[in-house]
UniProtKB/TrEMBL annotation:
UniProt-recorded name of the protein: ABC transporter permease
Biological source species: Pseudomonas putida (Arthrobacter siderocapsulatus)
Ranges of residues in domain ABC transmembrane type-1: 73-257
Secretion signal, residue range per the UniProt entry: none
Database matches in InterPro entries: MetI-like, MetI-like_sf
Length: 278
């Protein structure tokens, strides 16, 4: 199937969904629950083009600068994207490091196993109020909640990837004189990253979920905050507009991650070549 045909089919499906939504919204009583596509688009346009949005940046209670925007959506969107990116990067790096560490130290992994499973079993919604109490209504509590979701997803993938490295491959590489750092760089790290790459799209989605839930439960900025304000007034069109903004951002991150994975695939191929040389 050509790219042109594929995009035409996608556009046709989107048009069909939009038409079905418009048909449902023709009933005024039903429109109260499902919204109206035209009203949602109008709300998006108002967010983007009307009002004077501003965002004050502080460092240790000192005002650094004030950013001004041509619409009310931009400061909220910037806050949500910043929180999501921080949660994704911090959760990814910490999960990767901790997964490698425990994967290479089986004794410590057995000791910590029940504690890790217990921590992962705690519902994140329960943690959100505690994080707000500890870290306040700023971005720190939202980033921390996102990290709790991203960290465990990455950790378990990395740990599993390290544990499934072939013992025969390790024996051969050690026989050829590889030290511990070379084993990590040539064998363990590529094996772990293979599992991480396969879950990046899921991980960025988890970062979004954690951040938006945190904003929803306690914040003064962000897309989750806008959705909460709209829900309080039963404004379903604004709620749907916020969901559309989040969906578009998630698709953008997904496209960027796909490009990054293609770039890093060359490094993975190089690592595979090094393994074969060993």
């Amino acid at each position: 199937m050509s790219w042109t045909t594929l995009w035409l089919l996608r556009a046709a499906l989107l048009l069909a969904l939009f038409s079905f939504w418009s048909w449902l919204a023709a009933d005024e009583e039903l429109a109260f629950f499902v919204g109206h596509p035209h009203a949602v688009l109008q709300q998006l346009w108002r967010w983007l083009s009307t009002g004077n949005g501003s965002l004050e940046l502080y460092w240790q209670d000192h005002l650094l600068t004030t950013l001004n925007f041509p619409g009310t959506l931009y400061p909220h969107l910037l806050v949500t994207l910043t929180e999501t990116l921080l949660a994704f990067l911090l959760g990814l790096t910490s999960g990767l490091a901790f997964g490698l560490w425990l994967g290479l130290t089986p004794t410590l992994a057995r000791v910590l196993s029940p504690f890790i499973k217990a921590a992962n079993a705690v519902p994140r919604v329960v943690l959100a109020p505690l994080l707000v109490m500890w870290l306040g209504l700023g971005i720190a509590s939202k980033v921390a909640l996102g990290i709790t979701l991203v960290f465990f997803a990455v950790f378990f993938n990395v740990y599993q990837g390290v544990r499934e490295v072939s013992p025969a491959l390790l024996a051969n590489v050690r026989l050829l004189g590889a030290n511990r750092w070379q084993l990590i760089r040539i064998v363990y790290l590529p094996a772990a990253l293979g599992w991480v790459f396969s879950s990046l799209n899921t991980v960025i989605g988890l970062a979004f979920v954690g951040v938006v839930v945190g904003e929803y439960l306690g914040s003064t900025r962000g897309i989750g905050y806008l959705i909460l304000q709209a829900e309080a007034t039963f404004d379903v069109n604004t709620v749907l507009a916020g969901i559309i903004v989040l969906t578009c951002c998630a698709l953008l991150f997904d496209a960027l991650l796909a490009r990054l994975e293609r770039r890093l695939s060359a490094w993975r191929q190089q690592s595979d070549d090094e393994q074969r040389r060993w």
